[in-house]
């Protein structure tokens, strides 16, 4: 009897980092000043960000866009996804506790159309530019977070820039966007208002002890450590400064808490290391400007508004 071994061929996925513009029809790039105006933050929102180091409740996605990204995330959590090799980092469970799960990955923008195109979401780039001082916005990297129901792990208190000092100067901005309603029960983000004025702190283990940051704070900072939970609706974004202390607790609810993050900086930021900035990305030598295929310019207000 002759038997035949079945061979499964996994076709490679196109690296979408080679496309530095909208691919799909999930978002529409505005062509008039009026269309751009609908995405503009108010002076009050910008003032709140500058004073507190974060801004919540910014509507970024509609129901169709949310569902599309949920579906893509469901595919990407599979370590056998054909585009897996394009991730900069992939942690099926980054939690240091055996009783909890924290899925965390970087590089989804290279793999699926939806997570690629959120970089060029007009609502996102407009707000990002304003919060960076009306400057041109350049992409740094993205992240996916997934806390499953009942056993979702924590993200320890930290400052984002403490992990990014291989780039300089500090002109960075983070946008976290929930794909589910985010509540205290399912592990919403929490912030320490005004902590972006404390300067750069040592970095703790990201998925380790939730309160590990306390070991790095002065007595005065410990006294000012008064976190507030920030609950959001699905599709709403929270922007925060690169030095703002933030973290999130366990997901104890009966529903998942899914989110993606887009990290950017003002155009002109330079490499501060003669080493790999992201896994698999060609080295940008120390002192050279961050740019190129993997760090595309997302939005330049001077060019955009000159063209409308």
TrEMBL record:
Claim: Calcium is one of the keywords in the record: no
Entry superkingdom: Bacteria
Xref: InterPro entries: Phytyl_CoA_dOase-like (IPR008775)
UniProt-recorded Gene Ontology molecular function terms: dioxygenase activity
SUPFAM superfamilies: Clavaminate synthase-like
UniProt KW keywords: Dioxygenase, Oxidoreductase
Cofactor: Fe(2+)
Record carries keyword Oxidoreductase: yes
Name assigned to this protein: Phytanoyl-CoA dioxygenase family protein
